[in-house]
Amino acid sequence: MRICFDISAGLGQGAGIGRYVRQLALALNALPGGPALRLFHNRQPLERLPPALARLPRCQAPLGNKTWRFYLLSGLPLLPRWRTTIDDSDLFHGTDAVTPRLCLPTVITIHDLTTMLFPRYHSRLNRLYMRWALPLMTQRADAVITDAHASQNDIVTLLGVAPEKVSVVHLGVDNRHFTSQSPVAIRTTIANLGIRSPYLLAVGTLEPRKNLITLLHAYAMLPPPAPELVLVGGQGWGNEQLANVIRQLGLTGRVRLAGYMADETLPALYSGAEIFVYPSLYEGFGLPVLEAMACGAPVITSNVSSLPEVAGEAAIQVNPRSANDLAAAIQTLLDSPDKRRTMRQAGIVRARSFSWERCAQETLGVYQRVLESTT
Asked: Which domains does the chain have, with CATH numbers?
C-alpha cells in the first residue's frame, strides 16, 4: 500500500496539529508491514522534518500557506512537477482538513470545527475560508478521520457528513519522551528558566479559545500565598488582551508568560507542576492534557468537547466558563497533597492507553477500508 502523506502542518507547526502529523508519519513508517509512505507538502521549512523520514520520496507545491489554501479551494489541477509522489501512490491523506482535487482515493483529517462553533476566536479571513473549504473538502474525500467522538458528532451535525464516512482515531502520546522526570531534571530545568517551585502550569497557544482570561480571574481568587502561574505557549491570534488582564488583576510578578517551549523542556515542566490547568473552551483532542498526565502532573481540565473523553476519571473536570469553579478546583488540590499524589498515578495509567502506534494502526485501517471500497 503506497500512501502519499501531507506533512505540511508537521513542518510548519511546532505543537498541536504539527505534533500529530509528525508523530503519525513516524508511527506509520515504523509499523511492521505498514504502508510505503511518500511525502507531500507545500512550501515549508524543513527543520522539523524528522530524520527518520528524510529519505522518503518527497515533493512539494512551491506555494506559501495562504496561496496554497486558496489554490486548493479553486479546484485547479496540480502541476505535474508538484505531484510526483501523489502519482506514485494508491491513496492521499490530507492531514489538516484540506486536500487537492485528485483522481485517487483520498482521506482527510479534520481536527475540530472551531471556526464554526467559535467564529469570534478566528480572523475574518480564516472564518470565510473554512466556511467554503470544509464542505468542499469533505465532498472530495472518501473518508474523514477525526480525533474524538465529540468532533465526530460536530462534523456529522454541522457539515452534514454521513456518520459512516467519519472515523474516530484518538491521538497518542510518546510515553518514552513524556514521562515523569527525576527531581534533579526538574530542578535543573526550572532553574534554567527562572521558574520558582511550586508552580501551576498551563500549556497551549496563547489564544482566546484556550480560555486563559478565565484562568487568570480564577488565579486571582486564590488566597495567598498561591504558587506562581506559568503560561507556556506561542503567541496566537487575538492574545493581546492577556497582558492587560494580568496588570488589571494585579498579577504582575505572579504570572509568568514563558513563551513557546521546545519538546525537550516540556516533560520536566509538566513533571514539576503542582497542578496542570487546561480550561479550554473547545478542543478537537487536547494533547497537552495527555502529555501532562503521562508526566505525572495532576490535571484540571474542562468538562466540554473532547476533553472528558481524553481525561476520563484521571482529571478534575470543571465548567470552563466559571472562574469560581476553576478556582475552587485549584484550591482543593493545593490543599490536598494526598489527592495530588493519587491523581499523578491515575494520570500516568490513563496516558498509557493512548499511543501513536495505536493511532497509526487505526489510521491504516481507515486507509484499507477506503481502498477496498473504491477498487
From this structure: 2-172+355-374 (3.40.50.2000), 183-351 (3.40.50.2000)
